[in-house]
Write a structure and sequence with these properties.
By secondary structure, this protein is of the alpha+beta class. It has a five-stranded mixed sheet, with helices on one face.
């Protein structure tokens, strides 16, 4: 497992290692997205927005609308958490495979939003990662559209293999019964399933990224 965020004792966020296939250097980024910084109360959002060009206005509008929905969801969740006890929240993002972001008439655009919350009195924050994957029209697509032959048995085999290679502990009841709905496509064109803390692995392992195929 590779953690996407670390919360220090002072409550500040620092980026750690990325999951595989995501841009880790400025030179690896496409330039398609910019980062929108927003701070309000206990919330800090460093979220992406797709830059609009002459030929991609409709595409950019669809992509940015999907991102805005995720930001709204996170904001509402954080507000609800603060009704119970003081909670800080952060959002950052990472870039995966980026198609033709000027004309956007081909390829896949894939990003990962990473959220973390830390409530008063809690020793550790909670991390949640979500992949957003867009086709050439700017619409979100499901896994079968890129890996139509993938089976649940294939996914379980990939989970076992990845855990063994990385020395990750799996929970006793870690077998999945359906195809992943949360995934991203890396710059290496590998598709990675994302499983949250306590889904398949102990909480301490963080978010678990599993390679399940290639496009």
């Amino acid at each position: 497992m590779l953690a996407a965020l670390l919360i220090s004792l002072s409550g500040e966020v620092a980026e750690a290692s990325l999951w595989p296939g995501l841009a880790s250097k400025v030179s690896e980024k496409s330039g398609a997205f910019r980062t929108d910084d927003f701070h309000q109360g206990s919330m800090t959002l460093r979220s992406p927005y797709l830059v609009t060009h002459l030929n991609n206005a409709d595409f950019a509008g669809r992509v940015n609308a999907a991102i805005a929905r995720e930001k709204d969801r996170f904001t509402e969740e954080l507000a609800a958490d603060n009704q119970v006890k003081p909670t800080e929240g952060w959002m950052i993002w990472h870039e995966g495979l980026i198609g033709n972001f000027i004309s956007n008439n081909e390829g896949i655009t894939s990003i990962v939003l990473v959220e973390q919350k830390l409530s008063a009195g809690d020793e550790h924050g909670k991390t949640f990662a979500k992949g957003l994957n867009f086709n050439g029209a700017g619409d979100l697509f499901d896994l079968p559209q890129v890996l139509p032959r993938l089976t649940v048995a294939d996914v379980n085999a990939c989970i076992e293999l990845t855990a063994k290679k990385k020395g990750i502990t799996l929970l006793p009841n870690h077998e999945v019964t359906e195809l992943p709905t949360n995934f991203y496509v890396g710059k290496n064109r590998v598709v990675y399933a994302l499983y949250q803390q306590d889904d398949l692995t102990p909480f301490r392992e963080g978010v678990f990224s599993v390679p399940i195929g290639k496009v």
